[in-house]
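agent> step 3/5: call structure_predict on target 'TLDc domain-containing protein' (Gigaspora rosea).
agent> reason: downstream docking stage needs a structural representation; sequence fetched in step 2, passing through unchanged.
tool.input:
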Amino acid sequence: MKVEDTDEILGGYNPKEWDQSTGNYLVNCNDRFIFSLKNGNINSSTLSRVKVPQSAIFCNLNFGPCFGPGDLIMYYDFGQVNGCSHAQTSYEKAIRDTEGNFSITEYEVFQIKRK
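tool.output (status=ok):
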């Protein structure tokens, strides 16, 4: 996701199926991570691996992707002003300098499937 009025790109990786109909946290998995790319410079980027696997991914029909209970969240109205948030909880590092709500200008979601 591209954070509005900044040069930040935020995102995450989840190797398990994202089933939003469950309304629960996904099964434990240590391979998940979230990241930030800042200033177009790899040296100022952050990779944050999951430290609490049982609450690393939340699935709910009323939300977009949710990494942790607050680490990187897209609310149901994520396209609106302040529709996303960040607060370091279940992942090792904060991926933004400030916690709280923020707006995005665009986002992409990719699915990788094995042949």
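agent> step 4/5: record observation. The mean pLDDT is 86.
agent> proceeding.
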